[in-house]
Amino acid sequence: MWQCIEYKSAAIEQFRKGDLLQRVIDDVSSEAANAAEMKAAASGNPLILMQVQLASDLRKLEALYSQHQRGQHRMRDRLKYLASAESRLAKVEADYAESIRLRDANTRTMTEKGKEKILVELAHEGKVLGDKDGEKMRDILVGGIKEVTRNSSAKVLFGTYRGFKMTIVRSMGLASQDGFRILLQGAGDRQFQPDNLRYSFDDKLSLSGLFQRVDNFLGKGLDEAVARQRENVRQEIAEMETVKAALGKEFPQQEELNLTRENHSAVMRELQRMQDDANYVSTWTPKTSLADGQTTAEAPQPQEDSAAAESPAKQPEKQYYKLKYGEGEGRTEYLVTNQHNGQTLKNGYILHRTYFSEHVGSLGQGMYEDGQWHSSSSVPRGVYLKKFESAEEALGIARQDAARRGLKETPPAEAAAPVSTLNGETFRDRLADAGFHPTGSDFYGKNEHSKTMDAGDGGIFQMRIFQTADNQTGLHVQYEKYNMIDGSRTVNAQFGTLDEALEFVGAYQTPAERPAAPMPEETHVRGMVFSSRPRMR
User: Fold this and answer.
1) What's the CA dihedral at 28, 33, 39, 42 to 10 degrees?
2) Phi, psi at residue 422, to the nearest 5°?
3) How open is the CA angle 326-331-335, to the nearest 5 degrees?
4) What angle do CA 32, 38, 40 make, to 5 degrees?
5) What are the tens digits of pLDDT across the range 498-531?
6) CA–CA separation, 464 vs 427, rounded Å?
7) Which helix (H) or strand (E) holds 529?
8) Three-state DSSP class for residue 530
9) Among 185, 222, 261, 305, which lies 20 to 30 A Cα-Cα from 60?
10) What H or E segment, with its residue span, contains residue 512?
């Protein structure tokens, strides 16, 4: 009877807990362990309970070992990609130089009233359309928009302007944000997706404004794109050192795993012998180490971590000191604290380093007594966290490590949040009025705030507003339903002001009303209004 209860309780308990370390529903934990104890007590054989405990420990250790191996495999793949950072940057630099040459070679200007202006010249199907061909250019653009409206996967070539191919594609979003965008293709088949060339079907678009936006991107956007790539490569080179340090580390619980495997095999042999021979009496006891022979079942005394101190009668004040290098994805943070394993150290401080990466996750390491950085899963056996006598000493080691890795410290944020232009309210007050609250994190950017909104279909929108490195307002929107993320509905946007970002957020709750019907003499595509012809600027 107790054996049946054990099987049922084990499966139901693990399914209810949803333990990610378990790959099969066959474990014994929580209430299930009580049933196993009852079975052992009813049988009068303590080896049965020991076998159940060893089997449970073995499954968990095997799962941890598999997780360690998968992590090593992911890091090996990541390291291969990181090793090509400099060659990828060289290709980007070459394409950038060729794109600049292509732009300059295909740009004609004229002087009007003492000012130099760029001539609008669009190459389409072997013909060059100029200022006098505005109607023809408009028809081509309208036709392309109609095509991507009918077929969301279509790509329609609008023409070639200043040496760059302009392609019309569909831009999907909320009902009020559905529209199209213009892609630019430069040298080396390198494609650009300028944010200022994204339009909704409700926008009023003029051809002159379109070409002005293209000129703005070709004037500054190319430089900004290659600058971002250079920064990404710098971060990848810094990440490569962290990945190399973590790669190849032995499973930290390997000895415990081997010992548990041997003890479990031994107790199974003993139970089998007892089943085969009713007169057999086992005197077996589990090993406490791989070097032991047949030993008593005396439990080994656990070693205390040298970084953890006894809890004094009066706990010292909790202290934290953080150094940050970089912003958002790819940043590195150092933390000096007197907290360890939920306790306040009586004397001394410990030092942690964390690298934030969306590819391999956040890589956390600590400074250990051997003078090396280790993660909790890769630290050698018997090596403990290093204790520093003062926070200043630990911060000095952190700054030395950052300097050796070529990192530049990010200045701490101002105590007061930046001020919005609306009625003198602060950034934080405006977000609080809109239902946002501080997250206590700056993974996406400075002053990060979050909000959860009901999607109306059983799902939710997780929204995060933050300040980007160039003092813009960033927005990250993620849709979740039944704890599953729908990546096709993820939005990453950047706005010039906080008000623009909050207006965009409001569209998720109350879709914006479409504009009134346009004048009949103008051309329309699903609310898109085309007016005026291109002009020389």
Assistant:
1) 170
2) -95, 105
3) 100
4) 105
5) 888 888 888 886 544 323 333 434 444 444 444 4
6) 14
7) strand 528-530
8) strand
9) 305
10) none
